[in-house]
Amino acid sequence: MGPHVSVIVPIYNVEAYIHQCIKSILSQSYHDFELILVDDGSPDRCGEICDHYARMDNRIRVIHKKNGGLSDARNKGIDIARGDFLTFIDSDDCISSDYLELLVKTQQKYGSDIVQGEMTRNIGDLGNVVPNLGVDIMSPAESFRDLLCFKRTKVYACGKLFKKSLILAHSLYYPVGRLNEDCATTYKMILQSNKVVLIPNVIYFYRTNENSILNSAFKCKRFELWSVPTEIQDYLGENWEIFKHELEYYKFRVGVNLINESIQSCDLDVERYRNEILRQVKNMSLNENELDLKYRLIYRLIRLNPKLYCMTVKNMRRRK
Description:
The chain is an alpha/beta fold and about 325 residues long. Helices cover about 40% and strands about 15% of the residues. The chain has 12 helices and 9 strands.
């Protein structure tokens, strides 16, 4: 029999952080797992470091491959995984010592295809329980709505436990070449699952890496995210109208995020894409009473004067 859980870590150019990541996995209170380190053609010493740890611990398997991006690395890990369940960890992040124990025990208690823990940017918060949050047991539709409304269900692949047969049965691999691979995949996993269970424990620390995709200069490719609401609608087929209200809100929030992220770019192509998104957001018909104060003000300002909104965001960014 193979291990119960396969931990998949795609690795690229993170020599400064990879030791902390691997050590946090090897120090788990739960032991029935394998660790798959996917060296995605890393130009630094990450490949050597992976091999070093593999010689020290027989639970570790290393793949060295030509650089293909995060999705390709995750997919290679899925293909060789021997566990019944999968979890994904980014190589510049780390996890609490009871990460696997909490996820596995929750899955076994509720029989869910997906379990999600809480994430933090403050490593000191690991091991805490978020106040006012309990265990939420959601149907696929409930969790999907929750995700579309930017509530507790998160789009990130990390910090979750997935039943491997769920991914394989529906060929839910990550799209190679996409920057927004989680946004294009997680909702499908949720909709195809039997249930999703959310726990209040803070188990995953994600690092804000200055060299990461989202913190580098804004590129037009990032606007791929604007197509995700349409992709979701197409995936739902005739059932999309059941979620029409939530999809409109999701598109609004995606649009605002892209406008804000690209606001300081002087690239003419970026400006053209941004102006088109501003136009579409301005023409949306949302129920203001269902928006919280922050997004109600954003919605009103964009509808009133998109240029004024952009100037306001730019000025706020400069003050930071």
